[in-house]
Automatic annotation (TrEMBL):
Keywords of this entry: Cobalamin biosynthesis, Oxidoreductase
GO molecular function, one term: precorrin-6A reductase activity
Pathway(s) of this molecule: Cofactor biosynthesis; adenosylcobalamin biosynthesis
Annotated organism of origin: Paenibacillus haidiansis
Organism lineage: Bacteria, Bacillati, Bacillota, Bacilli, Bacillales
Domain of life assignment: Bacteria
Protease listed as a keyword: no
InterPro entries named in the record: Precorrin-6x_reduct (IPR003723)
Enzyme class: oxidoreductase
One Pfam entry name: CbiJ
UniProt entry tagged with the keyword 4Fe-4S: no
PROSITE patterns: COBK_CBIJ
E.C. code: 1.3.1.54
The protein, known as: Precorrin-6A reductase
NCBIfam families, sorted: precor6x_red
Gene it is expressed from: cobK
Amino acid sequence: MIFMLCGTRDALELALVLAGQGLPPVASVVTREAAQQLEAVGINTVTGRLDREGMIAMLRKGGYHAVVDASHPFAAEAHANAIAVAAALGLPYFRYERRRGTYPRHPRLMEVSSYEEAARTAKALKGSVMLTTGGKTLAIFARELIGDPDIRLTVRLLPSLENIEKCRTLGIDQRNIIALQGPFSWEMNEALYRQYGTQVMITKESGAEGAVEEKLSAALEMGIFVILVTRPVMPPIREGGIFDSFEKLAAAVKAALAAEASGGAMRFNTK
């Protein structure tokens, strides 16, 4: 069996590609809503957060033969746990990674390596700041930016009760919350920047699927400073590989399982 971590819209399509290749995965998801979407197309699921020990116990008991990681590009802890679990159990690990964007050099585009650095950079710039990095990062930016009289922090995030409650707890005013489901077009981004008088926009390099290019190009064309958080560095992979194509990943998984069945071993490490 194949254990698959799911955390993006890409995961559903990848699960279907694997199933179509005769490699039906068991998909691990956090929410019941995500489980229902996968189950509706015939993909078996397990729901709830798994720590490293829990994942090892489940994979060992279930007799799994490979780990496929379709977590979000910024889910560093999930990636690290999956890599460690696969290594501990001697299983190949395959990760789908969205293609990285290529962004032109621009005097108003600043790349940083962490959310903390992004928050410090925004604090130095001041003005009306729009945060688009998601609910999980709110506390980092709230600590740095809320309370500064020269900063208005507006947050754009998914319209979940958890996110709204987090905003309330952190002291983010209701008028500064944009609760919408993306991705957004260039025109929608422009309209929101204009509506909120945005002077600084913070985003992360989540790939074309996250509509990063539309966010960046609209902001830069409007003269807005853009702070771009680059992807985290991941631990090395012992066996398996990283792929930016569903079909190539599925082919690599199939080859690895065939090699295992014949008593051999195959290693992949290219996209």
